[in-house]
Amino acid sequence: MSKIEEITSVEAWEKHVSSLPPSTLLIVSFHAPWAAPCAQMATVLSTLASEYPLTEPPSTSWVKINAEELSDISEAYNVTAVPFLVLIRNGEVLETVSGSSAVKVRNAIESHASKTGAATAAHNGSATSAANNEAEVTTEEDPEKKKQELFKRLGELVKAAPVMLFMKGTPSEPKCGFSRQMVGILRDNAVKYGFFNILADDEVRQGLKEFADWPTYPQLWVNGELVGGLDIVKEELESNPDFLKPYSVKANGDGSVAAS
């Protein structure tokens, strides 16, 4: 039975990748320890890994990476949200899956894994896959249902971390001046926060405007409640300098991690 190995350093990652034969499917799960969807995905992946026997040479290799701790690796694979799955063979990215859909993750792995290792998994997942495909068709034909599902996702997303920043770009590369200023405020106050790059997901970018009834970005959310944009955050801090103090930690880099 295959098991998931934790990669804890860039050196360990490079060593692991270089040790794999070209035929091995490398399944990389990016996660954040504070994000509930990541804990759920960890269970899903552990179950899936157990369905793939150990072979020589290995047909699959399963690893997990803390997206925050190893940000260089995260950025190399354009990880903008967690959980985030990357499937690699012989150095080439075959597919990525963002989010916590167990069905999408299973289907992606099965489509690229060797048939020998995936036989049991394919059998177990066939009915689920068919149901999911039907659901997707139904969603496409029903805009209201699609909107409900998006709002459900957004409701989970704004609660992914106690402090969530929806911004243009990433903390290391903001794509607008307002987002850059917001990141600066959070950094100056040593706030630990999750972020979402709305430029990487147009569905979230457009949907969150309606969900929040707030038309612009960046948006700062605290404990699942919208605080507002840059001006509102500045006003909050002017009237209450300790506004962000409950979320302050010892500064460590930019204190941010991509979230889903």
- Quick one: CATH superfamily of the largest domain? Glutaredoxin
Strand content: 15-25%
Low-confidence stretches: 115-131, 134-140
- What's the CATH class of the largest domain, please? Alpha Beta
Q: How many β-strands, per DSSP?
A: 12
Biggest sheet architecture: 5 strands, mixed
- The SSE string, one letter per element, is EHEHEHEEHHHEEEHEHEEHE
Q: Count the helices. How many?
A: 9
Report the CATH architecture of the largest domain: 3-Layer(aba) Sandwich
Give me the side-by-side strand order of the main sheet.
1-3-2-4-5
Computed CA radius of gyration, to the nearest angstrom? 20 Å
Domain count: the total is: 2
CATH fold-level assignment of the largest domain: Glutaredoxin
What class, by secondary structure content? alpha/beta
Q: How widely separated are the two ends? A: 29 Å
Bulk shape: globular
Domain Thioredoxin: 8-102
Domain Glutaredoxin: 163-227
Biased composition (Low complexity): 126-136
Pfam families: Glutaredoxin, Thioredoxin
Structural commentary:
With 260 residues, this protein is of the alpha/beta class. It has two domains: 4-134, Glutaredoxin (3-Layer(aba) Sandwich); 154-258, Glutaredoxin. The protein has nine helices and twelve strands. It has helices at 10-19, 36-49, 71-76, 102-112, 115-141, 143-157, 177-188, 202-212, 230-239, and strands at 4-7, 25-31, 60-66, 84-89, 92-98, 163-167, 169-170, 173-174, 193-197, 219-222, 225-228, 256-258. The strands form three sheets. It has a five-stranded mixed sheet. Helix 5 crosses helix 6. The longest helix is centred in the middle third of the chain and has 27 residues, at 115-141. Mean pLDDT is 84; it is low at 115-131 and 134-140.
